[in-house]
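Deadline looming. Please check this record:
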Amino acid sequence: MHNGGRWAVAWVAALMLVLVPMSVSADDDLWPPMPGVGAKASAGVFYSVPCGCFDRHVVAAELSGRLHFGDVAAVEADWQPGTMLLGGNFPSQAWALGGRMRVIPQLDQWWDRVSLRAGYRNWQTMGMRADSSHGLYSAINWSVEVFPHIYVESDVMAQRVFRDMPHWSFDLRLGLATRF
């Protein structure tokens, strides 16, 4: 893993260790963690920092494995196969490590399942100059339980790649997730 990636993972872990206890209520059951999986579809645009333009689009899928600590937090690993659209279709894939945390206490309102996501992302696209690009992501996530243990999830996500081919990526994601 790239040195910046190690720092990003350490930062996310430290942030969760500090903030999770602050958002825990007496009703939350944090242990044992519940495994879960998620599958989402996404569409996004890229803002290239060197040229100052929105020059690419991407469609992708996201498959994730998670460990949920009650409804308060989760750690997750994602794999994201997709296609970049830039005068043609270029296969791309990414993997990410991160976490999510509920920041608003449960009040039995529609926003109870709003959480913040953050982590490290490694992205590769066929035909690009760099083998892979490293960066960070953050997102606002909202989920609704539609059946027992089945959730519809949506994300509004921003990602920043720093070194090779610096750019911002803005994605919308929608999909299903479950906890066991």
Notes: Residues 18-27 have pLDDT under 50 and may be disordered. The first helix runs from residue 3 to 19. Helices lie at 3-19. DSSP finds one helix and eight strands in the chain.
